């Protein structure tokens, strides 16, 4: 058998790293997924932290991008749940604002996010961060 040909067990398996995107805004979720896929990653999306937490168990993401402000379970609650579950999955937090002087992105970093970005997102910086996470593990 030619070593260059894929085996039957490789058929249909996409080995690109999977990034789970959690955001309640469908336009943000879809556009972020399109950009990340354009840079060679697979994506899976969820609309809130609860759905994202369920996806962690089913799709085994290599990294997670989560919005902070979402209904049902927000990004900070998700970070707490992931930390309590000891998943070890690197999380990048994103947010569109500050409420009453509270810096949600700083709080996310303190809660374990490896990086945090303000919307509108610096796409190339975020892609660079994801790429570094995939090549070095969880160091961003």
TrEMBL record:
Q: What is the lineage of its organism?
A: Bacteria, Pseudomonadati, Pseudomonadota, Alphaproteobacteria, Rhodospirillales
Keyword Transcription attached: no
Q: Which domain of life is it from?
A: Bacteria
State the organism named in the record: Dongia sedimenti
Protein name as annotated: Response regulator
Q: Which PROSITE patterns match?
A: RESPONSE_REGULATORY (PS50110)
Name the InterPro entries for this protein. Answer: Bact_response_regulator, CheY-like_superfamily, Sig_transdc_resp-reg_receiver
**SMART domains found in the cross-reference section:** REC
Q: Does the keyword Phosphoprotein apply?
A: yes
Question: PTM 4-aspartylphosphate: at which residues?
Answer: 67
List keywords of the entry alphabetically: Phosphoprotein
The segment(s) forming the Response regulatory domain are: 18-134
């Amino acid at each position: 058998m030619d070593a260059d040909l894929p085996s039957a067990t490789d058929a249909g398996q996409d080995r690109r790293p999977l990034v789970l995107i959690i955001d309640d805004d469908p336009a943000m979720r879809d556009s972020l997924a399109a950009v990340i896929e354009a840079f060679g990653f697979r994506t899976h999306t969820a609309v809130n932290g609860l759905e994202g937490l369920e996806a962690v168990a089913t799709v085994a993401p290599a990294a997670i991008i989560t919005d902070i402000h979402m209904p049902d379970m927000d990004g900070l609650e998700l970070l707490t749940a992931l930390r309590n579950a000891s998943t070890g999955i690197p999380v990048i937090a994103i947010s569109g604002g500050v409420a009453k002087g509270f810096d949600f992105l700083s709080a996310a970093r303190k809660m374990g996010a490896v990086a945090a970005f303000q919307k509108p997102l610096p796409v190339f910086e975020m892609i660079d961060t994801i790429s570094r996470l995939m090549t070095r593990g969880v160091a961003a």
